[in-house]
Design brief:
The protein is an alpha/beta fold. It has a single domain, classed as Rossmann fold, CATH 3.40.50.1950. Helix content is 40%, strand content 17%. The protein is built from eight helices and seven strands, in the order βαβααβααβααβββα. A five-stranded parallel sheet has the order 2-1-3-4-5, with helices on both faces. The two termini are 21 Å apart. One of its GO terms (biological process) is coenzyme A biosynthetic process. One of its GO terms (cellular component) is phosphopantothenoylcysteine decarboxylase complex. Pfam families: Flavoprotein.
Length: 189
């Protein structure tokens, strides 16, 4: 697997509690990792937990404008070989598919992120909604990639399994490696 510079975008879904495990696995695989989290993500996982998993501070809307005058969304987009959004909520995908950029993560994706990999996690009804399907199709049309969602029990009080569960950590890490490998293959003459 090709190691790379990975920006993990954490959005505000219940599956955000799994993000530190994904971050840890990426680092164990040799990737350099930075984290950008939405404000909603902090309802489900503390900023400090993400920082410990990444081994550095978390990039947020509060840190968006650097004291040097540079703006983080441009710096992060240029730095990252791949932006992994895990978990990716229906809202985050919808915002990206219509070009919204009023938070650090969505602005980073708009600012020229080279490769974007979405790891969706949401209620099965949200995943199967025609709006979500249209947004996924739009993002795929732009070359964005997806890993999951998987079928299984949801983290909420849902008793029945369905498609919408965040892909397993190992599957996400493997998808990152595949995306990085195809990126270098695609760039070859």
């Amino acid at each position: 697997m090709d190691a790379g510079k990975i920006l993990v975008g954490v959005t505000g879904g219940i599956a955000a509690y799994k993000a530190p495990g994904v971050i840890r696995r990426l680092r164990e695989a040799g990737h350099e990792v930075k984290v950008a989290a939405t404000e909603a993500a902090f309802r489900f996982v503390p900023e400090e937990t993400l920082a410990v998993a990444a081994g550095e501070h978390v990039h947020t809307d509060e840190t968006w404008w650097e004291r040097s005058g540079r703006v983080e969304h441009v710096s992060l987009a240029r730095w990252a070989d791949l932006v992994l959004v895990a978990p990716a909520t229906a809202d985050a995908m919808a915002r990206a598919s219509v070009g919204l950029g009023d938070d650090l993560l969505s602005a980073t994706i708009l600012a020229g992120a080279r490769t974007v990999l979405w790891a969706p996690a949401m209620n099965p009804e949200m995943w199967s909604n025609p709006s979500t399907a249209r947004n996924v199709e739009t993002l795929r049309g732009w070359g964005h990639r997806f890993v999951g969602p998987s079928e299984g029990l949801m983290a909420s009080t849902e008793e029945l399994p369905g498609v919408g569960r965040l892909a397993e950590e190992a599957e996400i890490v493997a998808a990152v490696g595949e995306a990085l490998g195809s990126r270098t293959t695609d760039a070859s003459p």
